Amino acid sequence: MGDAQTALAQALSACAKGDRQGLKAIYEAEARRMVTIAERILRRHDLAEEIVQEAFLQIWRKAGQYDPARGSARGWLYAVVRSRALNAIRDGRREEAVDADSLERLQDEAQDGLFSDIYNDLDQASRLRACLDRLDAARRRTILMAYVSGYSHGEIAGRLKLPLGTAKAWIRRSLLTLRECMA
């Protein structure tokens, strides 16, 4: 496990014991990326910040549920944020309209390497990392865009300049490959 992963796992353990320094360490290390992920899903910075705040409350309360045997600490944290953001969409808290500045900022951020950072941060020995390694880089990116950042098939196709059918096929086939590998 990498140093950052070890530090996050230790911080989660500290949170589970009621140590606020653990939560502070997680916030300092991950809050910015968490807001970026939530904003990509919600398309609203203000709502993304609110969701991350709610996520940190959940992390504080539920840190004892983190199980290192089931995945990385960062993966667990991002799953909490992603889940809260998707719940906000289901609850109708996201407005559909996106102003031009927000859209441009999101498109610029899509090129910032977050996907490769997330992939590179996976524990080298994890089963998910090994299974993702079986996919070529383009297909791995479509999976990360869909399941980490919450992009729709159409958004993925647009950002990667692919026909919609191709994007859907890549995601479907990649998921089948991952399921077979993880089984």
From TrEMBL:
Keyword Magnesium recorded: no
TM stretches of this protein: none
Leader sequence segment: none
Domain RNA polymerase sigma-70 region: 26-94
Keywords: Sigma factor, Transcription, Transcription regulation
Gene3D superfamilies per record: 1.10.1740.10, Winged helix-like DNA-binding domain superfamily/Winged helix DNA-binding domain (1.10.10.10)
Superkingdom field: Bacteria
Boundaries of every RNA polymerase sigma factor 70 region 4 type domain copy: 127-177
Entry's family note: Belongs to the sigma-70 factor family. ECF subfamily.
Name of the molecule in the record: RNA polymerase sigma-70 factor (ECF subfamily)
Organism (species): Rhizobium halophytocola
